[in-house]
Specification:
Helices cover 66% and strands 7% of the residues. By secondary structure, it is an alpha+beta fold. Strand 2 (566-573) and strand 3 (577-581) form a beta hairpin. Helix 18 (440-474) runs antiparallel to helix 19 (485-514) and helix 22 crosses helix 24. The N and C termini lie far apart (124 Å).
Length: 753
């Protein structure tokens, strides 16, 4: 029979109802040696009736034949045959219960109803005592609930969630105490007031036990859907929605609970067990119809609310689960109530305890998972703060921690979701979680997962520590001053090397921990590396050249260099290439292997070298005096004074050019400041030479008007433009006679100087 059940569990979800029928089939318990009294009574009633006795014999023979066929069958058995067999068994069970119930109902005429009247009256007193005491105690506890509701959200910051959970638990404990006191009062009334002293009727005990179980379940429902106290409600929803679901679940639980735990045992005890079984089936069918109606009415609304929660969730895995739940929650709910009906039809004696145990285990697992997940979400949403001293020395440490901790908490939350899912499957006997955990497979898998998690955690912490150390070395706030460009470049390259090394070692150790043999992988990597080395000689050359350039301190980030004929600022240096940004903003990526020489303008100091040409008629000594005067004015500029390292160096006349006499000067500056100093000095030189009337030659144009073949020159087509007297005086021009202007020929404009 075990093989049969194992094969039947492979049937798809659409045949879930058939699975429940097979799982709880009474043939699975044929070996039980302690049948319940109700089963024995049913068997005795069947054997007394010749027709039912023969029917029972036929059913047992058919069941034996079916069992032998299943045990001897192979994996080639058709699914259709299994479904047909399950359907037949279910139909026979249901038909038998209806037949037995009808026979039991026909015998109700012989029941002594007058003898049951005193018992019913005593039971009514016990029921009233339990319910009245319960409602009175609830009224008295209202101030305590109001206190918990008001104080639940008053704690500031991160303690708000813990405070709320504490007061929710406080209100839940009060609710349980009220139920317990009401139950004790009911028991006291039954023992000392109703009937004989210190004696309790079975019917009274049945009701009080049912009262305790049902009210405890309703207290758990109020924990999630508290309609009166918003801050004591675990599920985020409005008060109207919470009241609706609280009322509906309370009605369904009361109807099923009191019906199955009180009414059905009463009927089985005082009337007939078969009739009690039929009533239990009828109760479950009515509850299923009612639940189906409510579920379909709220199908769309609940799906929309769950979808909103999925959109607001920041964890991708949880969002996917919530989206799946929003589309299928109604199917799960309908399946749950349908399974409850089927189990009741097949196993009426213990259907409710089995389903109740599975439901409570599921509920406890989900509640615990939700609480832990909510706490982790609260931690994830918070930003970790470091002290001002640490922030001063490690400015990026807070950002790294706020990136690392939420990721770790998300992984832990994923693990919690998987554990909750395993507990839910275990509750419904679909997966034995405790047995799997203690098995060799489970122990090895959990050990590997834990080991891999620790390895990844250590690798991440090592990287955070190293990155923080690098940051500490280049941070000017540490007291050592700002790091040099060489230190920054070397530390950046070291960071890249350490990161690659950590990644490689972490991957290798993780694969080894999982159980993979990394020896062939390392050997293969060596062979592949050798092949790549031969095939990528340029890459190897880039790397080697880059290493030597860094060792020789040829280029640092931020330097202005000329490399491979391109001048620009070094923005990025890797182990194989140099990134230059030229003055036009163009970014050049230059492999180190193509660099034959490097010109670095940022080493130690710089020079502004200026060649200034003057006309041949000018006195060069006077020009040098004005060049020094321009330098003195430059030194008075606070923006440029700090960039100049020494006095001006006048090297004298360096060239007698075609159109000018060139005088060279040199100004020593801080590295990188030679260009700004040169621009400022050129501006001042122009001003000083202009003020002194010293000509700075520039190219002149000679106009040739041509000549005739006989050598005579044609008249120049000049057009004299009238110049104001003030401008003539400024230019040193004499005023032309009117006749000259009147006799001038028209032509191109020319301003005579």
């Amino acid at each position: 029979m075990t093989c049969c059940l194992t094969r039947k569990f492979k049937i798809s979800f659409f045949y879930f109802a058939i699975l429940i029928t097979l799982l709880f089939s009474p043939y699975s318990f044929a070996e039980s040696t302690n049948p319940t009294p109700s089963t024995s009574q049913i068997l005795a009633d069947m054997l007394e009736n010749p027709e039912t006795r023969q029917q029972l014999i036929d059913e047992l023979r058919s069941a034996s034949t079916a069992t032998e066929a299943v045990e001897g069958s192979t994996a080639e058995d058709s699914l259709v045959a299994q479904i047909a067999e399950a359907t037949q068994d279910f139909a026979q069970q249901l038909t038998s219960q209806v037949v037995f119930a009808a026979e039991a109902a026909s015998g109700l005429k012989t029941v002594d109803w007058q003898a049951l009247a005193p018992l019913a009256l005593e039971l009514v007193f016990v029921i009233l005592a339990a319910f009245v005491s319960f409602f009175l105690l609830r009224k008295l506890a209202i101030p305590a609930f109001n206190f918990a509701d008001n104080r639940a959200t008053q704690a500031p910051g991160a303690a708000k969630l813990l405070s709320r959970l504490l007061f929710v638990f406080f209100a839940f404990v009060i609710d349980i105490l009220i139920i317990g006191l009401a139950w004790i009062i009911g028991y006291s009334i039954a023992l000392f007031v109703v009937g004989e002293m210190s004696e309790m009727k079975t019917t009274q005990s049945l009701f009080l036990n049912a009262f305790l179980v049902i009210e405890l379940f309703k207290a758990i429902v109020r924990l999630f859907f508290s309609s009166r106290y918003e801050n004591l409600r675990l599920v985020p929803m409005c008060g109207e929605t919470a009241a609706y679901w609280n009322t509906w679940l309370a009605r369904v639980s009361s109807f099923i609970g009191y019906g199955m735990l009180f009414v059905v045992p009463m009927i089985s005890l005082h009337l007939a067990p078969a009739l009690g079984h039929f009533i239990s089936l009828l109760i479950m069918v009515i509850a299923f119809i009612y639940a189906f109606t409510i579920i379909m009415q709220n199908k769309k609304r609940v799906a929309v609310n769950i979808g909103k929660q999925a959109e607001e969730n920041d964890f991708a895995f949880t969002s996917v689960l919530l989206n799946m739940l929003s589309r299928s929650w109604h199917l799960l709910a309908i399946t749950y109530f349908a399974a409850l009906v089927l189990v009741t039809a097949i196993r009426p004696e213990d259907a409710l305890p089995v389903m109740l145990q599975a439901s409570l285990q599921t509920l406890v697992a989900i509640v615990a998972g939700l609480l832990i997940s909510a706490f982790l979400s609260q931690l994830i949403s918070r930003q970790l703060k470091v002290s001002d001293d640490l922030k001063l020395r490690f400015p990026a440490l807070e950002g790294r921690l706020n990136e690392f901790i939420p990721t770790t908490l998300k992984v832990i939350r994923l693990f919690i979701i998987l554990v909750v899912f395993a507990f839910v499957l275990d509750a419904w006997s679909l997966f034995n979680f405790s047995e799997w955990v203690t098995s060799d497979t489970g122990t090895q898998l959990l050990g590997k997962v834990l080991s891999v998690g620790i390895i990844l955690l250590i690798a991440k912490l090592l990287w955070i520590a190293f990155a923080s150390w690098v940051e500490h070395q280049i941070n000017p706030a540490t007291g050592r001053g700002a790091a040099s460009a060489r230190q920054q470049t070397l530390l950046k390259l070291l960071s890249n090397a350490v990161m690659i090394t950590l990644i490689v070692f972490t991957v290798m150790i993780t694969l080894a921990e999982i159980g993979l043999n990394i020896g062939p992988l390392i050997a293969g990597a060596g062979v592949v590396g050798l092949a790549i080395g031969f095939g990528a000689q340029t890459l190897v050359k880039d790397v080697i050249t880059g290493i030597f350039l860094q060792l020789e301190n040829a280029i640092n980030a931020g330097d202005v260099v000329t490399a491979d004929g391109i001048t620009g600022t070094a923005e990025n240096l890797t182990i194989r290439s140099l990134g230059l940004r030229d003055r036009f903003g163009t970014y050049h990526l230059i492999p180190f292997s193509s660099i034959t020489s490097v010109s670095n303008y940022m080493r130690g100091y710089g020079y502004h070298v200026g060649d200034y040409g003057v006309a041949y008629r000018e006195d060069t000594d006077e020009v040098i005096v004005h060049l020094r005067a321009a330098f003195d004015e430059l030194m008075s500029d606070p923006d440029q004074r700090d960039n100049i390292m020494d006095d001006i160096e006048v090297q004298g006349v360096v060239e007698l050019a075609d159109n000018s006499v060139n005088i060279r000067i040199r100004i020593k500056t801080l590295p990188g400041s030679q260009w700004s100093v040169g621009r400022a000095y050129n501006r001042l030189v122009k001003r000083h030479l202009d003020a002194a009337g010293i000509e700075i030659p520039f190219p002149h144009t000679t106009i040739y008007f041509g000549q005739n073949k006989d050598g005579s020159a044609p008249p120049a087509p000049l057009n004299l433009v009238s110049t104001p007297a003030s401008r003539q005086a400024e230019l040193g021009l004499s005023k032309q006679p009117d006749a000259s202007r009147s006799n001038a020929n028209t032509g191109s404009d020319f301003d005579e100087a």
